[in-house]
Amino acid sequence: MYKQILVPTDGSAGATSALKHAFRLTEQFDATIHVVYVFDTTNSPLGLDNVLTDVHNPPGESVIETAILEGRKSGCPIEGHVLKGVPHETIVEYAVENGIDLIVIATRGRSGVARGILGSVTENVVRRSNVPVLTVRARESDGNAESRSKSNPKTGSERDDR
Question: Of 105, 91, 160, 96, nearest to 134 (Cα)?
């Protein structure tokens, strides 16, 4: 069912939980994980994207290297990439261009004003992706993760609000 799984990461605990969830899915479906770190160029000054990327990519690269090592330890086929662009757009484009069957992405669980002010990469991916999206939310109290299948208006998939 799922042969290519995309896991966007920023190295946070929530993203790590999403990656671990994807590891379990690869065991079930014999899938390959694509883990990506997107360097956000949204607010970079005109013409400085390459300079800023060169300066800031080492943290992105280390996040990807760590994810790949964890995947290999778990016996999962995994590849990683550092990309640049507007995060939600870059994630959705990568999914389409690489034949991704499922996106597994972390959510911080913000609501109300905090979500409105800060925006949500996860929410934008869910709204814009034609690929099914599985969200994984880390609970702040115990560090565990719970997954939620969000409805995608374009695919009409069911919603599971645990």
Answer: 105
Tell me the C-alpha distance between 161 and 86, whole Å. Answer: 28
* SS3 letters across 5-21: EEEECCCCHHHHHHHHH
- Whole-structure pTM value: 0.78
d(CA 25, CA 3): 10
Structure token pair of residue 74: 């778990």
Radius of gyration for the chain, computed over Cα atoms and rounded to the nearest angstrom: 15
Query: What is the C-alpha to C-alpha distance for residues 98 and 75, in angstroms, rounded to an integer?
Result: 22
What averages of pLDDT result for each successive group of 10 residues across the chain (162 residues)?
A: 96 93 95 95 65 58 95 96 94 98 86 57 94 83 48 46 41
Those residues whose C-beta lies under 8 Å from the C-beta of residue 6, and which sit 6 or more positions away, are 33, 34, 35, 36, 91, 94, 95, 98, 100, 102, 103, 104, 131
